[in-house]
Amino acid sequence: MIIDQGRRRIFPPLSRASLIVVSSPLVGGTGKTPLAAHLARRLQERGLTPGLVTKGYGRRAHGTFVVDESGSEPPVAAVGDEALMLWRETRIPVHVGDEPADVIARLDEAGRHRAIIFDDGVSRRWQGERRIVVLSPRDCTSPVRYLPFGRWRVRPQTVAQATYVAIVSATVCDDAMCERHRLALRGWGFTGPVAWYRTQSAGFARVGSEDVREAETVPSGPPYVFCGLGAPSRFLEHLEAYGVTPAGVMCYPDHHAYTRDDLADLVQSCRRSRSDWLLTTHKDAVKIDPSWTSDIPVYVLRLTLDLIAGDDLADVVATGAENS
Description:
Blueprint: E1 3-5, E2 8-11, E3 18-23, H1 32-45, E4 51-54, E5 65-67, H2 76-79, H3 81-90, E6 94-96, H4 100-110, E7 115-119, E8 124-126, E9 130-135, H5 137-141, E10 164-169, H6 175-187, E11 194-207, E12 212-214, E13 224-228, H7 232-241, E14 248-252, H8 260-272, E15 278-280, H9 282-285, E16 298-310, H10 313-323
Parallel strand pairs: 2-8, 3-7, 3-9, 4-6, 4-7, 9-10, 10-11, 13-14, 13-15, 15-16
Antiparallel strand pairs: 1-2, 5-6, 11-12, 11-16
Helix pairs in contact: 1-3, 1-10
């Protein structure tokens, strides 16, 4: 039975798979999708055959899609940038649908997955779910400001409904900072397991005709940087931590769909800044038309998560999936 609590619906528990929901009470740039990819890879390493589900935020198509190796990739307009990013980062099939609860129910009934990871489950809840709320260090130490003046879309006390909290950062958190984070979480009513992850660079990759290819070297000199993110400052922090100083920066709205005119403008801006290359995020790279070419190459900075403190959520959720 589905329980309706105003704008929030609570679905019955899954019968076969363990459900891990990755969400955040904030908008833009919390690290939900990288964490979902990280957990999916770790579960796969343990032979648990995870399933990945996303609503495909920002897509312009309706219906159900699966991004997998059975055929050519669906266009980003059909499945959304996060679905393509998850697939390219994990090579684990990603399921997209208008109603993710229906997609999750079908995957559970099929019985092929020990665990199902749902990326961005904000307005839907399941009985028996294991919810991971993702925050940044700044979210725990800065004053709470709600949309449209801040990043919070709901009260921080909703964090108390989480099973675990993951705090994702571009830098290292010391013991004192971790304790301040725990103090803030306790003030919001959360006392469960907490994990701190540092975002680390895995090197550069060049955007090719089909996917991104590992790059041993990049052009000399600073890149011209562009991105369409909810919190572009976090990407710039990653670049600073990696020692990259941009020749110039162009920021677009979150989930921006790049046109050929956009790309032509970026090339011109790159040349005016006297840079020889463009640098963007993996999320933005999946929205570049594969047939587009230029003498200015486009690279992405590949990022991975490294557990630096707290509980290893991959082990925690894997143990739960093994016991489900």
